[in-house]
Design a protein that fits this description.
Blueprint: H1 4-13, E1 21-25, E2 28-33, H2 47-54, E3 60-63, H3 69-76, E4 81-85, H4 88-96, E5 102-104, E6 115-120, H5 134-143, E7 145-156, E8 182-189, E9 192-193, E10 197-200, H6 204-213, E11 217-223, E12 228-234
Parallel strand pairs: 3-4, 3-6, 4-5, 6-7
Antiparallel strand pairs: 1-2, 1-8, 7-12, 8-9, 8-10, 11-12
Helix pairs in contact: 1-4
Amino acid sequence: MKDLLGKAILDFQTNNSPQNIVTETDISEAEEMDIAYLFRTYDKMPLLEQKALDLCKGNILDVGCGAGSHSLHLLKKGFDVQSIDISQNAIEACRIRGINQAEVCDVLDLKNQKFDTILLLMNGTGIFGRLKHITKYLQHLKSLLHPGGQILMDSSDLIYMFDEDEDGGKWIPMDNKDYYGELVFTIQYKGETEIPFNWLYLDYNTLQNAAIANGFKTELLAEGNNCDYLAKLYL
């Protein structure tokens, strides 16, 4: 990976002529995103994210922390937060922002640690990549939880993006896919194009069924206006 999203984050943090990033998926057109959005404060966050942050407890693992805005808010509230991301540039930006426990790490490589809250926001199910990887991730996340711990995770049901056929059903092209929420993302930044990567959006029922199959209880905490939701997984 070229780490273009991380480069955009670090450019913004260091005022190195940051530009908007362009994202595109295999089911949607290219669109620009202002990188400043990743540096938003609590009062500018969507309500689902605010609720997740309000429900955090104990020591916290922020998975895929990006620019670190969620971690920073929790640190200011006095929590012990460990922030991880696979992007070296993003982690460098986090450290500049004062997030000292930020490290470059794939969550699957995190071992021998336990947390009271594991946070996966901004479509936290995305890191699963494909539907077939859910069990691997959920079992590993379970191994990182203290007794009584919780996973707070958001995602969206993308069924609304597909056209209806004549009988009211949805027409969903499934070439090389196991599930309609499996997307292939591409990011462009400053004339460079990132290597395409898999990113998974999950409807709540599918997440719930997978969680139960892996020994979790689930709770639908809140729903947004765009088929998005916040869920809690716990043991």
